[in-house]
Specification:
The complex is a heterodimer of chains A (123) and B (247). With 123 residues, chain A is an all-alpha fold. Chain A has 6 helices and no strands. Chain A has one domain. In chain A, helix 2 packs antiparallel against helix 3, helix 2 packs across helix 4 and helix 3 packs across helix 4. The model of chain A has no long low-confidence stretch (mean pLDDT 85). Chain B folds into 2 domains: 195 residues, no CATH class; 25 residues. The chains are: A mainly alpha (123), B mainly alpha (247). Chains A and B meet through helix 1, helix 2, helix 3, helix 4 and helix 6 of A and helix 4, helix 6, helix 7, helix 8 and helix 9 of B.
Chain lengths: 123, 247
């Protein structure tokens, strides 16, 4: 979806940002701060590091404002849900025969994830 | 008691988000298809307990989560299999297997009850995580409403992928005709269709916190939102990556 949105709007995006790597060439406004916020929210649910989340929240709010922060929290909360639906139900991805999607998965090294097995089992 | 007023929030919360959260709280309190309102609210309590659960923390470190025995930190009288499922979906969802879901049936947690339970868990996580992201306390849970589950099971289920029966791609018809149009759907939408209301709940909430189904086709920016689609998908991708979600 990030790639499609990037191509649709003809803006650069380093997909490695989803792995927490700050994009050197990226046209996503507040991209680094959004990346930190989303990452720290997801990580702190597991490790309890609320200080990191507090810091990321302040950082994002300072540069982008409250409305961006609120919408970012909404999307992040939404995907804390979506990943759990996918894994709890063991569903495979819908496009294992899509060349572009497979390239992205390889580039981002997503096959390291345990749940890749749920999709491999369907091939 | 009015819920989700967000009076103490230092940030203005969009009205559609408030409405979606209130709507779900009312749904949560009522009987579903396989659990009573009291049980659904208890599932919600266990979602919050899971974050403090020492056994979950230890099990997360174990090489296999299926070899450890122990006691969850719990505050409800839900059956043990249900408590374990709630805690596992919150804290260690990537290691849920088909075998685990099948074994739960023998332990008294049917596939239907499991799907509804997961539906409640993920809605709670989504709403609680929104609050936590903004540094706001979790909303008090609603008082349960008396009533019995309707035991509704869609007629056109198939067992073709994933761990549980789901509607087929062309199965959104009859009572389920509102779920998607024609055969245009995705596995993540089919995932909870053993309990159609669980999908209805997540579509309602996603429309406010992320995008509506119609809005998914807009890769630029949805009106009324402060962030564009690229920003949304960066957040989505980062959260999914931290959660080690291949899907």
């Amino acid at each position: 979806m990030l790639r499609v949105s990037s191509e649709t709007t003809e803006r650069n995006c380093d997909l490695n940002m989803v792995n927490g790597v700050s994009g050197e060439v990226s046209d996503i406004e507040f991209g680094v701060e959004l990346m930190h916020f989303a990452g720290s929210l997801a990580e702190s649910l597991a490790d309890g590091d609320e200080e990191a989340l507090d810091l990321a929240r302040k950082e994002l709010q300072q540069v982008a404002g409250s409305d961006v922060l609120v919408d970012a929290a909404g999307v992040a909360g939404n995907f804390q849900r979506m990943v759990r639906i996918a894994d709890a139900m063991g569903i495979p991805v819908d496009s294992m025969d899509n060349e572009m999607s497979n390239e992205i998965r390889k580039d981002l090294n997503l096959y390291r994830f345990h749940t890749a097995e749920n999709s491999a089992a369907q091939e | 008691m009015p819920y989700f007023e967000y009076d103490n929030s230092p940030y203005a919360i969009r009205d559609d988000i408030k409405i979606a959260h209130r709507t779900y709280w009312a749904r949560l309190a009522r009987a579903g298809s396989w659990w009573t309102g009291q049980e659904r609210v208890a599932i919600a309590m266990e979602v919050r307990n899971a974050r403090q659960c020492d056994f979950c923390r230890e099990r997360k470190q174990a090489l296999s989560p299926y070899t450890m025995t122990g006691n969850h930190q719990r505050t409800t009288d839900l059956p043990e299999a249900a408590v374990d499922a709630v805690h596992r979906v919150v804290t260690d969802q990537v290691r849920i297997t088909r075998g685990y879901v099948e074994n739960n049936i023998d332990a008294g947690l049917s596939e239907e009850a499991y799907v509804e339970l997961v539906g409640v868990v993920v809605m709670l996580i989504s709403i609680d995580e929104f609050n936590r992201g903004l540094g706001l306390p979790p909303e008090p849970l609603p008082d349960p409403v008396a009533g019995e589950p309707d035991h509704y099971r869609p007629p056109r289920l198939v067992r073709d992928t994933g761990f549980v029966p789901m509607l087929p791609r062309d199965g959104a018809e009859g009572n389920e005709s509102d779920l998607w149009s024609g055969t245009r759907t995705a596995n993540v939408m089919r995932a909870l269709t053993l309990v159609p209301d669980a999908l209805r709940d997540w579509m309602m909430l996603a429309s406010a916190q992320y995008l509506s189904l119609e809005g998914m086709g807009n890769f630029v920016k949805q009106e009324g939102r402060a962030i564009d689609r690229m920003q949304m998908e960066l957040i989505a991708g980062r959260v999914s990556s931290v959660n080690e979600c291949f899907y």
